Amino acid sequence: MEGFLLGLDTVLEPMNIFWIIIGGFLGTIVGMLPGLGPATAVAVLIPVTFGMDPTSAIILMAAIYYGAMYGGSRSSILLNTPGDGSAIAATFDGYPMAQKGQAGQAMAISAVASFIGGILATFGFVFLAKPLANFALQFGPAEYFLLMLLTLSAIVSLSIGKMVKGFIAMALGLLIATIGIDPQTGVHRFTMDIPHLTEGIEFLIVIIGVYAIGEVFYNYLSIDKKKKEMERMGKIWFTKDQWKRSKWPIFRSAPMGFLVGVLPGAGGTIASMISYSTEKQLSKKPDEFGKGAVEGLAAPESSNNAASVGAMIPLLTMGIPGSGTTAVMLGALIMLGVRPGPMLFENDPGMVWAFINSMFIGNVALVIMNILLVGMLVKVLDTPAKVLYPIIIMLAFIGTYTLSYSTMDFFLLLLFGIIGLFMKMLDFPIAPLVLAIIVGGDMEQNFRMALTSSNGSLGIFFSSGISIALIVITVLSLCYPLLIKLLKKKQNDSNDDAMSA
Amino acid sequence: MKAVKLGMPLFMILISLTFLISSFSIPRATLGNANGPLYFPIGLSIFMLVLSVIYFLKELKTLNEENEKVKALFEGRTLKLIGVTIALGVLYAFIFETLGFFISTIIYLGALLFYVNGVKKWLVNVIVTVAFSFITWYGFSQLLGVSLP
């Protein structure tokens, strides 16, 4: 309780309130742009946090993150174009609602659902974070290595149908992370005698390259296509009947989304899909889903926002990001000299509590912004992409320069932009690459530290209950796509049987 | 089209081979386990090599299937847009420190906007270029204390 009040005090400083509002606003705008999601929003805006004190920086980044989550559904509803995976479910019923002339109602219910999801999940954060941090204190190098392995393999196996590509992306990321001086022995690896490479490739440059330059290149593919007509907005508030229909779906989806968000590798996309299909199964009128059922929009909106809060838990308590966006945030935090992990709660409770409080206030600010200012905000969707993309490119270059003060990195930035473009074009999942680059260094050091402590025996990875559990879950997560395949096949078979009968 | 579909796995094979071969020329460590720095790179590059070969074979099987996105790369002015953005970016890298942040940003952003957005909308392009350059220069160097050339 003491910590809570202390945090509240920090957040209520005018400067921090200002950052929450600015972050939420900028995040909403970038999130709203079709084709750009929260990871891009955070990546492009990272340089703004330099020179700030870490507490304000994390508050700002989190505000950008959930701002982008709020904004993401705007383009789903109005244009049927989701900014990223977690906004896809909002197109299922949000766009049909807009087509029926209920765009304003859809946006209002989505803002309120996001708000409730975010607030409930923040309560969940308060209760779950500390115990999890304490639990993580028991982790040694072997457990950390296995946990990172689990996160990486989960994020690959959850990108169903792209297992091979996902693991290639992961291996590439881990290999890139080995470039530079090995911190344990001082040996130069893959530096090709280029002095600039001795410190390794700065992971934020890879992130900005892939998420900003790569995304813009990818959007170039469709830049000259005819713009989609935006649906009319109508009144920005929902009816009593709509609220009655969405109330329970919203409250049910929040805890579910939160828990999915905490899991490594899962996140907003999966959370929103699960709650959409759950609501469809629970509904008395499942045939209305996909045709503008209000609960079909409200449930995933609540759930994906809750998931974005849940995803902060492994990030802050264990230093392990579970998604692309949190990976980007971890990169920025390390840059600022903050090492998230179980000790963060011991060493810097002020920061953690300020962050928690900022989520409450941020969600309040965003729901107000998204309902009152929605008319103004959607004007952004009218801003021609042809002006915005060059601006994003410029922001990426400037951001890169502020990282290292070296124009050499501009070439790396462009290189990773091109790699990002081809990866997106050929259906490679990006998150495993980014995650691997960020945790790669730690993962290797933990692996070797574990081996050193056991005198080279691999037995150390099977020596504790936690590590065995982690191995079992990792194996299970790898079997998951096969299971889905089998289930689908069985379903098809039984359908065929029914047809032939 | 086919060149892109097969090019990517070949590129990945090439990368993993490069990592694998240069792994062996990593000097032995004089501290701790002499081969310690080798395990990860060698293991990973073999893992990546195997998967890239699988990826290559998979692509070979579905070589004649169309990929809309790859097709879009060769349509309209997409390739030119990407090429111009990269070329201007390289130019930016060379002029950034000599001409300074403000002028080089105006050149890069201005040229990019005129190319992407079209000459007809010159007024918008000019306003956005100057406003963006000034705001970022002011924001970074004055408010955030980043030293820009």
Question: Residue share in helices of chain A?
Answer: over 70%
SS element count, helices of chain A: 22
Q: How many independent structural domains of chain A?
A: 2
Radius of gyration of chain A: 22 Å
Indicate the radius of gyration of chain B in whole angstroms: 23 Å
Shape of chain B: flat
Strand content of chain A: under 5%
Largest chain-chain contact? Answer: A-B, 62 and 69 residues
Helix-strand category of chain A: mainly alpha
Spatial shape of chain A: globular
Low-confidence stretches of chain B: none
State the low-pLDDT regions of chain A, or none: none
Number of helices of chain B: 6
What is the quaternary state of this protein? heterodimer
When the domains of chain B are counted, the total is 2
InterPro entries (chain A): DUF112_TM
Transmembrane segments (chain A): 17-36, 42-66, 106-129, 135-156, 201-221, 254-276, 311-338, 350-375, 387-403, 410-438, 458-483
Domain DUF112 (chain A): 17-435
Keywords (chain A): Membrane, Transmembrane, Transmembrane helix
List keywords for this structure.
heterodimer; A: 501 residues; 2 domains; two-stranded antiparallel sheet; 22 helices; B: mainly alpha; 78% helix; 0% strand
Question: Would you kindly provide a written description of the structure presented here, covering whatever features stand out?
Answer:
Chain A: The chain crosses the membrane at residues 17-36, 42-66, 106-129, 135-156, 201-221, 254-276, 311-338, 350-375, 387-403, 410-438, 458-483. Chain A: InterPro entries: DUF112_TM. Chain A: It comes from Mesobacillus campisalis. Chain A: This is Transporter. The complex is a heterodimer of chains A (501) and B (149). Chain A has helices spanning 2-11, 14-32, 38-45, 54-79, 89-99, 103-136, 141-157, 163-178, 203-220, 240-262, 268-282, 294-310, 312-318, 324-335, 342-347, 349-372, 374-377, 379-382, 385-404, 408-425, 431-453, 465-500; strands at 180-181, 188-189. Chain A has 501 residues and is mainly α. Chain A folds into two domains: 2-138 and 152-463, no CATH class; 464-501. Chain A has a two-stranded antiparallel ribbon. Chain B has two domains: 2-73; 78-143, no CATH class. Chain B is flat, with a radius of gyration of 23 Å. At the A-B interface, α8, β2, α9, α19 and α20 of A face α1, α2, α3, α4 and α5 of B.
